[in-house]
# Entry
Amino acid sequence: MPDLPLILAPTLQKPWLPQLPRPTTWIPAERNGAQMMADTLTAWRSLGPYADLWLFGYASLIWRPEFDVAETRLARVHGHHRSLQMWSRVNRGTPERPGLVFALVRGGSVQGLALRIPHAQVEALMPKLWAREMPNPVYDPRWLPCQTAQGMVPALAFTLSRRSPNYTGVLSAERYRDIFGHSVGRYGSTVDYARQTLHGLREHGIEDRALARLLHLTSP
# Structure
């Protein structure tokens, strides 16, 4: 499948994006996750009294959303990229053998899915979404303009700052091999998570060559 030619037209205008308070710390233990969720809900309400919630899925939200969506669109976001550079010491690893999960990191662009949650379901869904994505408030939630074939939509995305202590920085091929070979957490291994993400992307016609190259490191 070609790379979404219909959604890259430069004539599409950016939607107005809700704003969230600027982070004052990137240390999870110093963050108030409940307040971050409340701020996110307030920002969503600023879109209007009947606005749906769009989410940008770039990893497990694509293949394991755990909630019903009213609409799914192929989408591209400019200014961020999908990166397997966030430490996971519970879900995909342990404190002794940290694993990795995906994050949106600044730079480049990324293809994923825009997922629409109907207005009437947002208030009830948000605590469940927060428990899934922000049990430890590592991510920086923010609204990003998502280009789709049907037009631009403002979507909530979970991004990661390079200032975060959970950002790995550049990892060597040897370190990735070691993590893929040994890191397992309560939801399974890092390598299975990465494979499931690659498979989920391909099911929607999205090819992530960087991820495919990383997984090639697991070949004998």
